[in-house]
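Provenance and format

Records in this collection were gathered into a single text stream. Each protein contributes a sequence line and a token line. The two records reproduced below are adjacent in the stream.
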Amino acid sequence: MTQMTRRMALATMGAALATPAYLEKAHAAEVTLRVAHFLPGVAPMQTRFFDVWAKEISDASEGAIEFQMFPAMQLGGKAPQLADQARQGISDISWTLPVYTPDRFPVAETFALPFMVRNAEKTSIAMHQLMEEFGQDEYRGLKPLAFHTHDGGKFHMRGQRINAAEDLKGLKLRAPNQATGEMLTLMGAETVFFPVTEMVVGLSNGVIDGCCLPYEVVPAYKLQELTTVSNEPEAGGRGIYCNTFSLVMNERKYEGLSDDLRKVIDDHSGADLSRRLGAQFDEFEAFGRSMVEKQGNEIHTIPAAEIERWREMAAPIYDTWAKKLEDAGLDGTAIVARADELLDAQG
């Protein structure tokens, strides 16, 4: 060993011995959490939320918690299986939609009824409160981290303007959930339901004429290239529909963490995270709309008076949903009324 090499080795050893204990901990992860979801890795949900949130938790834990991201169902299976993947330990954390498994999480689905949305932030605040009051038993085996929604959906069509319910008659539409599908069927549309991941094929091959989705989905699936007209409700009232989301963690994994690491997870979940997710989805919505405008697609406004007529047509759906909740042993009338009250309280 040359004198120079010996000096370098001694210097390296000295630096290692002098490294503070907290820096050593910061580089030695105690637990790695696998996060699974269905959107592409380039989607804003990954790049602007999950990546940022993961870093915040890693920093707060001084590196004791690290994450592995598995977007686009990279752990296998299909989107409706995400909640079960977290329960079974295939993933440690899953982000999923209750509507992908209809009637299984009925309280969490309640805000997916037609016209139960303002913007995403306000509706997410209301949803989290509803779940705290009525939905605590729905996610057994899982640790709920947040509940939220997206902004109200719009009709993205391959060429059709929608001014009235009659314009939907005979159109083949991808329905975003069962309750909205029932409403569209009442208005004469022919509806099909499949996960958003399969929507591109349906639009490309003409199986459907359009879909009802928020603008935030546009960039991930290049929806602006598959449709030419986006029909949105006149501003000021409630939106047509929203879907609800659950961010859930394997309960055993959570309980197996040390007290200090559970506190880090707790500090980065709950009502504040639900509100934050809703606010971010409002940002995603604005960006998605800008992509439609940049493409040169038409953005058509559905008159407020017509939307009110649709709300009246949808009234029986609320009664049916309340009955469904009651059949599940819940106070359906109280849950639907409370959801409406919480939404109104958001202004």
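Adjacent record:
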Amino acid sequence: MKLFSPSKLTRTYISALSLIALLTLATFFAMHQVISTQSDSALLVNISGSQRWLSQKAALLSVELVYSSNTSDRKQIREQLSETIAQLQSNHQTLIEDSTHIIPSHCLSPQMQEMYFSPPVNMHTRLNRYLSEALALAQDPEHLLTPNNSHLIYLLQESGNILESLDQIVSLHQKESEAKVHQLRLVEITSGLVILITLAFLGLYIFRPLANTLLMERFQLENANQELSFLSSVDGLTGIANRRHFDQFLNQLWLLATHNREPIALILCDIDFFKAYNDTYGHLQGDECLKEVAASLKGSLKRQGDFIARYGGEEFVVVLPNTTVEGAVIVAETLRVSVENLEIPHRLSSVTPKVTISLGIAVGHANLANSPTPLIEAADKALYQAKQNGRNCFRLAEA
């Protein structure tokens, strides 16, 4: 057996250690990139998802502006509509332009470039037109604020198409994020295998401590990734599912219900006069109110498959798999009563001097030809009717 000289053996170990150091640095860099990519991608998806809610809010405010008969209310609605338009524009610029302040090294992929700037979606032009029409409506004089207003008609006609395109963009952001993370994980796994092979040739008695350290840090990273994945699907304030998790859950349930031919019930819940509550009791107390209402709604759901999420602001959404109209009505009333029984004081409520909720119910059957969007819109319209009919009640969407 040929023996290595001490000097050659030293050079061999130094070379091997240098290789291990370089591979270890590469592995840690890949791990860091996985976390960074997931975080940045989650932020992109959240910003893109918020565009959907903001576009709905702009359409709703536009309708309220036209149909409001109170001059003071119209002034407030104009301000809210202008703020919503500004936020939509700001988010849009963040998504389509490189941003070093919010999302480091963010740039659009070719597929996303095509979504935003090429037919048939051409989201950049369509959204700018949508915002231009909404801004024009917000600035129209009082005598032009009629149901026949051309700006309002365009907004109502385009709202559904905008929402569908925004859903496609959110989905594409998610797919690109998963692809990036998959590539980085391949780099991570490859580097780890090379390290293990090199360690086997050098002897366990030298590199065992290093191997144990790497395995421990890898375990910690996986835990961190799992925690990050969990946090990205949970609303930080209320502890229930967030809007992103709701979208994923509903899409998955929609596909399952398509095969099983089972009905899906969706209930939108909105805390009555919550802005007045915040103005009266302060935002910290408002946060506590949201937490209590969320816990009460969640505790009122008895079946394991029932799902609740924070839809946005003071709105919550409940999804009831395989539930008929009769069952959905019973659950809705249970939710309403549970919040009312919390006895949270609300002296500015015109319904009753305590916190209450209004609910909109929609029940439908999933099919591959349609998305869940019409079901959500139906529940939203029913919620609006509940508010118009005195609040602290529920309304069922028309079949």
